[in-house]
Structures are given as C-alpha cells and as structure tokens.
C-alpha cells in the first residue's frame, strides 16, 4: 500500500537534493535527483532548498510522485 508523506528539501548537493520525511530526519536524509523534483513540481532548481512538498512512498519504500502541497 502507498502512503503520502510530507517532504522538505533541506539542500542541494551536486545534482542531488537531500530531503526529509516523517521517517527520515535531517540526520539521515534521502537523496533524490534534483532535476526529478524540478520536472515533477515545476519549482526552479534555485528555489528547491527549503521547499515543502508531498510525495508517495511506494511499496518498495522509494519516494515518488513529488508535488506541491
């Protein structure tokens, strides 16, 4: 079963965005390709840091379907 979660983009590190969720905090953020977030949300790369989003946690535990809340 899929679960929708709140996601916050902490920072960009190279071509990756570090994001937190209720299951992964700032001490263990998940890395997601920044360009994927840009494509899925329409938020420009330079404005991603600090963005609040929602995503779906798939059955495999991977975040997908990022969108603005």
From N to C, what is the helix and strand string? EEEHEE
Portion in beta strands: 35-45%
Q: Give the uncertain stretches in residue-range form.
A: none
Termini separation (Å)?
21 Å
Cα radius of gyration in angstroms: 11 Å
Helix count equals 1
Helical content class:
10-25%
**Average pLDDT score:** 94
Structural class: mainly beta
Number of strands: 5
- Biggest sheet strand order reads 3-2-1-4-5
Shape: globular
State the major sheet: 5 strands, antiparallel
Report on this structure.
- This protein has 69 residues and is mainly beta.
- 12% of the residues lie in helices and 45% in strands.
- The protein contains 1 helix and 5 strands, in the order βββαββ.
- A 5-stranded antiparallel sheet has the order 3-2-1-4-5, covered by helices on one side.
- The chain is globular.
- The relative contact order is 0.29.
- The mean pLDDT is 94.
List keywords for this structure.
69 residues; single chain; 1 helix; mainly beta
List the SSEs and their pairings.
Layout lengths: L2 E11 L2 E5 L9 E4 H8 L10 E6 L5 E5 L2
Antiparallel strand pairs: 1-2, 1-4, 2-3, 4-5
Provide a concise account of the structure shown.
The protein is mainly beta and 69 residues long. It contains one helix and five strands.
